[in-house]
């Protein structure tokens, strides 16, 4: 068991495992001890909050099973994720169906499996919940006006706070059990102040409901807790302090808190081993080398779209080796399958085809994004240690 | 057998098939008669060119088998695509390994299977070809300076023309069989003039090689022939005329021509049936409706990234139904899973959850891009008619 989620030994341990096993590349290796340590670190940083792991971040059954054993609850996005969690031993009452976009049949499927927590953000989904999940606990997601995150959500999810107030009052009229409001600051959020605006708006909604005679119980803060990739991120304690201060300021009675971390649980637990397919230049005077890896945007590195996530990279060359600027691309015949051409990266001058390039903190939003067969390349496999 | 690839009856026929079978949504249905008709239309438009179907556009075995029967050759991007084509009866000599990014083991695999045509664009790949595919026919891809296409390649593939000249002369020294130069104007190119610059540069390379005593045989024009989505595209005849005129102008002796169409063979042969999951508004005064479908960017509509491809949509509502502006999004909990928020789309005011939305001309670059399980949603299945 590792002591700390930020241990520099994590990637060393995983790299040693891969050196020993020498699996075909590319592959993701997940250290389940780090998953457990990250979960415990979140619990310790914000003990007043229940943790609902966002399964979408890494839906490997082994990860889910490890978190069931830790006592985690689960934020699920689909009936597929519900069935996955139940198969790994999760109790139905530990599942929250957090996707506000659901078919009536999906709600009925969840309800039949014992799921009793749902999130909505529209009249249509609310009506379906009243019909197909009667009496369930419901939260309404509102659009929070907060500074942008690393991978912002835009306006896809949530409704205006005024509309959330109306919808939650309606939910009570429809016989549903009103939990309260929820929001999400956006994935990979590095500004602890982002939660402040959402908590203030959630408190406004709760007060408005109380005035209508509808008591609320909880506040779901979503996820967004950041991982330090190439850029440092504030520690969990800073986010927890900001959340705690805003709740104390805006709520007279503290609500039950829920958080839905995904990336913060699994990112640092994963390492992708890739192989250099080719190093080339575009002309005989080109200053940059192009480094083509055997993994790209369509086999697991989807979050390099627009170069949102700049992963840390490691090679077996000594750290003091001479290096130079590179453009890094994937192996497909797709012009968009370029990982980094604007973000400056340098790799050793001695790097050659056949060398490994390890991609650190790659446990979140990677393997499950893999395309089934784009360009004839297979999906990213996952190995486990711990 | 359908008479024309632009027949308005294509989507009617596929929609009738889906109405009759009522498969679970989302799904892609491919009309193999239209695949055949598109292949024949390309052959008729440019009879002097050999057609190498770009398998990546739609690698369904049924599509490949239909094209084997038509006598097509195949542009393959990986050993996976090589094995797929051979399994469908393609002759090894009909395969061209067009991806210039290859591991030595992949080259050896291809050579062992009988593949004898390869494309390269770097010193490293050329050296590997000389070692692992001795005596094979090789083309060098150069970077063409042409107007941008609908989904441009950027600079990922190809080298400077001067470097291509050097590399092809080196290829001859290494005992490889020099085919000539190749280029690609970028996928979904709607300007027939795009080919002109590339053909002029290819002729410059061929003359330079002739001066070095290295004769060349062919010119590979790549793909890029456009599909008319919401915006009309010039007919194949216009592209063929531009190609023919440029070859006549720049080459003293006409080279053997090769084309590598993907989209132009399969796009119009496919239709995706989706279902509306939810219609909502973000506030009680929101002018736009949000329409959430059960397919999105991660289950087949990857080419809606940056709204590059604006598909035509059809519903069962009468075409004269009142309509209004919509933002269209996919079903996952991912903020980037939005199909169209900048491109203006209007859908019927009467559209409701449970209604079908059919996505036309969706046979290219869809099913094979599907993620394995993102958010717990399964990959896009394909059905076949014809």
From TrEMBL, chains A, B:
Gene3D superfamilies according to UniProt: Alanine racemase (3.20.20.10), Lyase, Ornithine Decarboxylase, Chain A, domain 1 (2.40.37.10)
Record's keyword annotation contains Lyase: yes
Chain segments annotated as transmembrane: none
Entry cofactors: pyridoxal 5'-phosphate
Location of N6-(pyridoxal phosphate)lysine modifications: 56
Pathway it works in: Amine and polyamine biosynthesis; putrescine biosynthesis via L-ornithine pathway; putrescine from L-ornithine: step 1/1
Enzyme class: lyase
Matches recorded under InterPro entries: Ala_racemase/Decarboxylase_C, De-COase2_N, De-COase2_pyr-phos_BS, Orn/DAP/Arg_de-COase, Orn_de-COase, PLP-binding_barrel
Top-rank lineage group of the source organism: Bacteria
Reaction catalysis annotation: L-ornithine + H(+) = putrescine + CO2
GO CC term, one of those recorded: cytoplasm
Gene Ontology molecular-function annotations: ornithine decarboxylase activity
BP GO terms, sorted: putrescine biosynthetic process from arginine, via ornithine
EC number: 4.1.1.17
Entry annotation: catalytic residues: 333 (proton donor)
Span of domain Orn/DAP/Arg decarboxylase 2 N-terminal: 34-267
Keywords: Decarboxylase, Lyase, Pyridoxal phosphate
Family: Belongs to the Orn/Lys/Arg decarboxylase class-II family.
Record protein name field: ornithine decarboxylase
Organism: Actinokineospora iranica
């Amino acid at each position: 068991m590792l002591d700390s989620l930020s241990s520099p030994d994590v990637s060393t341990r995983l790299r040693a495992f891969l050196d020993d096993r020498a699996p075909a590349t590319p592959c993701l290796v997940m250290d389940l001890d780090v998953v457990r340590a990250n979960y415990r670190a979140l619990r310790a940083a914000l003990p007043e909050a229940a943790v609902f792991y966002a399964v979408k971040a890494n839906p490997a059954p082994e990860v889910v099973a490890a978190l069931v054993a830790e006592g985690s609850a689960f934020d699920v996005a689909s009936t597929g994720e519900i069935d996955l969690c139940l198969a790994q031993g999760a109790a139905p009452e530990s599942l929250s169906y957090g996707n506000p976009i659901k078919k009536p049949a999906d709600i009925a499927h969840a309800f039949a499996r014992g799921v009793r927590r749902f999130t909505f953000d529209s009249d249509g989904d609310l009506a379906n919940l009243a019909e197909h999940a009667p009496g369930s606990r419901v939260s309404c997601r509102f659009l929070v006006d907060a500074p942008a995150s690393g991978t912002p959500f835009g306006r896809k999810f949530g409704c205006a706070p005024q509309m959330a107030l109306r919808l939650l009052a309606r939910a009570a009229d429809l016989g549903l059990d009103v939990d309260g409001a929820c929001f999400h600051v956006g994935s990979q959020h590095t500004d602890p102040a982002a939660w402040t605006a959402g908590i203030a708006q959630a408190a406004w909604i709760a007060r408005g409901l109380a005035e209508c005679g509808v008591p609320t119980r909880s506040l779901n803060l979503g996820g967004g807790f950041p991982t330090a990739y190439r850029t440092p991120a504030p520690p969990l304690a800073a986010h927890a302090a900001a959340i705690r201060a805003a709740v104390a300021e805006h709520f007279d009675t503290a609500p039950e808190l829920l958080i839905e971390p995904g990336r913060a649980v699994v990112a640092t637990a994963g390492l992708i081993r890739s192989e250099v397919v080719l190093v080339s230049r575009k002309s005989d005077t080109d200053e940059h080398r192009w480094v083509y890896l055997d993994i790209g945007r369509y086999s697991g590195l989807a979050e390099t779209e627009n170069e949102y996530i700049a992963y840390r990279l490691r090679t077996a060359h000594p750290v003091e080796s001479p290096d130079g600027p590179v453009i890094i691309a994937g192996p497909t015949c797709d012009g968009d399958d370029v990982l980094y051409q604007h973000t400056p990266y340098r790799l050793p001058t001695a790097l050659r085809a056949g060398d490994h390039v390890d991609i650190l903190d790659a446990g979140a939003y990677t393997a499950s994004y893999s395309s089934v067969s784009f360009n004839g390349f297979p999906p990213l496999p996952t190995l486990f240690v711990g």
